[in-house]
């Protein structure tokens, strides 16, 4: 059981690393678009639109956290679990983060 939890935690770390890399890539794309591709008026309009998108995402994130709560991962002790156990929802949820 402990190994399953450790594996889940490691996978969450990997996902976090991917999310951070994606954030850096998004920032770089915005920077290149604003500085190198668009003229100053287009860049200003683009950045204002991007700020609106970010605000919407932050509002949705806040709503999600308020209404849904923290992420949980179901951990099953495979030695004792059977298909019937899983179908009946006897797997134990474990809070992560």
Give an account of the 3D structure:
With 97 residues, the chain is mainly alpha-helical. It has one domain (2-69). Helix content is 71%, strand content 8%. It has three helices and two strands. The protein has helices spanning 2-37, 40-67, 83-87; strands at residues 72-75, 92-95. A two-stranded antiparallel sheet has the order 1-2. Residues 79-97 have low confidence and may be disordered.
- The count of DSSP E runs of length 2 or more, i.e. the number of strands, is 2
Write the H/E string, N to C. Answer: HHEHE
Q: How many structural domains? A: 1
Strand order of the largest sheet: 1-2
CA distance, first residue to last residue: 18 Å
Overall geometry comes to: elongated
Compute the average pLDDT.
76
β-sheet strand percentage: 5-15%
- Tally of separate helices: 3
Structural class: mainly alpha
Proportion in helices: over 70%
Largest sheet: 2 strands, antiparallel
Question: Over the alpha carbons, how many angstroms does the gyration radius reach?
Answer: 21 Å
Low-confidence stretches: 79-97
């Amino acid at each position: 059981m402990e190994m399953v939890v450790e594996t889940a935690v490691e996978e969450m770390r990997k996902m976090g690393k991917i999310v951070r890399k994606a954030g850096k890539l998004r920032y770089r794309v915005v920077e290149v678009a604003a500085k190198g591709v668009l003229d100053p008026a287009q860049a200003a309009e683009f950045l204002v639109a991007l700020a609106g998108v970010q605000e919407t995402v932050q509002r949705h994130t806040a709503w999600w956290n308020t209404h849904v709560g923290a992420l949980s991962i179901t951990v099953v002790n495979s030695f004792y679990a059977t298909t019937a156990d899983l179908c009946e929802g006897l797997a134990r949820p474990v809070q992560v983060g």
